[in-house]
Amino acid sequence: MRRAVAALPLAGSAAAARSQQQPRHQDDEFRVLVVGAGLGGCVCASELRKRFEDGGPTLRLSVWERATYCAGRFGARAVHGGRAVDLGSQVLSVVDPSDARAAPGHGVSAEASIAAFAEASRLARAGLLVPADDGALAGTEERLNWPGLWRHYRAATSLSDVLEDVLARARPADVRFGRRVDAVAVSDRGIVVSATQRPAGERVAETFDAVVVAVAAPDALAIGGAAGGLPAGAVVAGVAYDARTAAAFFFDDAGGALCANQPLVWGVPTKLQNSLAPSNRRRFV
Ligand SMILES: Cc1cc2nc3c(=O)[nH]c(=O)nc-3n(C[C@H](O)[C@H](O)[C@H](O)COP(=O)(O)OP(=O)(O)OC[C@H]3O[C@@H](n4cnc5c(N)ncnc54)[C@H](O)[C@@H]3O)c2cc1C
């Protein structure tokens, strides 16, 4: 069982805290908490589910997210009159594994790129993703250096709906939105996770056998006990981000006027910090 958890590839900014204890509770159940329902958390939950499907202990999966929906830098959105605008990621991009240029490299293993391609294709078949033309997208390094290698998909409705679908397939036993994790501590019964639940602000605590912290580096460091005490803490502390501000403008269908009954600008700079490839980062500093 421990092997299954230890082998799980974590999202770039994620840190994991794992109990050294065997589960002490009754039943053959392994309690895992994923902190954060952004892209990393939702994909992690779905991968965990797959890895517990080959027999052995039953996975009891919980997901706690401080936002009120599957958000993060991938799923953050503004909604007005039933329409959603993605504020973070605009496209989901995957390498086509059948292209000879796909291996080696591009920052992902062959196994991960095949899995990512399969998942994006599934989401497209389900009508949640729509292929996006290279020509409609900005000339990023990947697109300029590797023309045609990447397949890009935009959301049919919003990328948050894509995350919801990925999370649902993980069949979590318990999903809590509006719950911010404040601290983790290892006890002889497992990993005790304390959190604050919105809107009332009540304090909650629960014990797990493993905790995956799938949040941005500064958020991980803000969780008491999560990253600071682990060897990964030094790595997490060294992660650099640039800051971005996203704005959504909604226009009236009839006259093309800006809608007046909503704030015109949604700025979520704290959620929209983005890690950059070093070559890109140089352009911003
Ligand atoms: C403006 C912008 C545009 C981008 N465009 C693209 C693009 O087009 N294509 C692409 O592939 N990538 C793009 N990216 C990058 C991509 O969005 C991110 O790499 C990805 O979303 C990171 O996901 P994550 O799950 O690691 O972190 P996050 O998205 O930050 O998710 C972490 C989640 O954890 C929650 N959380 C944090 N702390 C706590 C806590 N203490 N308790 C509970 N929950 C917590 C947060 O609310 C959040 O929902 C873009 C990023 C930005 C900012």
TrEMBL record:
GO molecular function terms noted in the UniProt entry: oxidoreductase activity, acting on NAD(P)H
Coiled-coil residues: none
InterPro entries noted in UniProt: FAD/NAD-bd_sf, RNLS
SUPFAM superfamilies according to UniProt: FAD/NAD(P)-binding domain
Recorded GO CC terms: extracellular region
Record-linked Pfam families: NAD_binding_8
Name of the featured protein: Amine oxidase domain-containing protein
Source organism of this protein record: Aureococcus anophagefferens
Taxonomic path: Eukaryota, Sar, Stramenopiles, Ochrophyta, Pelagophyceae
